[in-house]
Amino acid sequence: MPLSRFSDPARRWVDAPTRTVSAAGTTFAYRQLGPAKGVPVLLLNHWGANLDNFDPRIVDGLAAGRPVVALDYRGVGASGGKAPLTVAEMATDTVATLHALGFDRVDIVGFSLGGFVAQEVALRAPAMVRRLILAGTGPAGGTGIERVGAVSWPLILKGLLTFKDPKTYLFFTASETSRRAAEAFLGRLKERSSDRDTAVGMGTFLRQLKAIKAWGRQAPQDLARIACPVLVANGDRDLMVPSPNSSDMARRLPNAELVFYEDAGHGGIFQYHEAFTRKAVAFLDA
C-alpha cells in the first residue's frame, strides 16, 4: 500500500478534502482520514448517500488509530458515470478503485446498500478483505429487501409533509429517545460547512433502488465462503432491511459476531454511535 496518499491527513472528518481517483473508466470521489500506517478501513454507504452522509463521530473514532477511506459509488456525488443497476457492478467498481488507490488489503464497513456491496467484494476478492463490518444490511435474497422502496416511499413523503429529513423516519423508531438521536445525527451531518459533496439526483436515487430490488430478488449466496471475521450490527427494529436479516447473516457466516441495539431502527449504529464505534474499533484491533 503506498502511504503517500496519507502523508498529510486531515484531523477531522469534517475537514477531510474531497479527492478523485481514476478507475474502471471513470473518476471516483473519495475522502481519507487518519494516520499513514495500518490496514485501511473502507467505508461504503447507503442508498442515496454521498460522502457527506457518513457520521463524523464514527469516522473520527475509526480514524483515531488507522487510515480510513470513504468512497462515492459511480454516479454518486462527485464521482463520474451513471449509477449501476446491480450490486455486482458496484462491487466491481469498488475493487477497481481499491486497486487504483494502491490497496491490496482492507477492512470494510458497509452500511445498508454498502453492506450488500461489501459482501459481494468479500466473495469476489476474499484475499483483499481482512475484516468486515456489516451494519443495517442483509444478504442477497433477504427477507423484505425487495420491498425497500415500498416501505420507504411513504416515510419519505411523511418527511416532506412534516418538513423533516426523511431519515428521521427511515432510520429511527418513533420513541422519544430514538427521535432525539435522530436530531443529533442529522445535526452531525450538517457540521461540514465547506467542500460539501454534490447532491444525489433523483435519477441516481432510482437506479440504486433498482439495484437494491434486484439484490432482494437474487438467489441466496454461499456466505460460508466469507471466511474473514465479520461483525454484524443493526437496530432491533429495522424497517428498511428487516432486522431478522442480520440474524440470518450471522448464522450463515462462519466467523461472525452479532450485535443488536435496543429500540433502534435502520440507523441503529448512528443512534448508538459511541457504543458502535467502541465495538468496531475493538473488532478491527483484534
UniProtKB/TrEMBL annotation:
GO MF annotation terms: hydrolase activity
Keywords annotated in UniProt: Hydrolase
Top-level lineage group: Bacteria
One Pfam family cited in the UniProt record for this chain: Abhydrolase_1
Keyword Hydrolase on entry: yes
Domain AB hydrolase-1 stretches: 40-270
Keyword Transcription: no
InterPro entries the record matches: AB_hydrolase (IPR050471), AB_hydrolase_1 (IPR000073), AB_hydrolase_fold (IPR029058)
Protein name from the UniProt record: Alpha/beta hydrolase
Source organism: Methylobacterium aquaticum
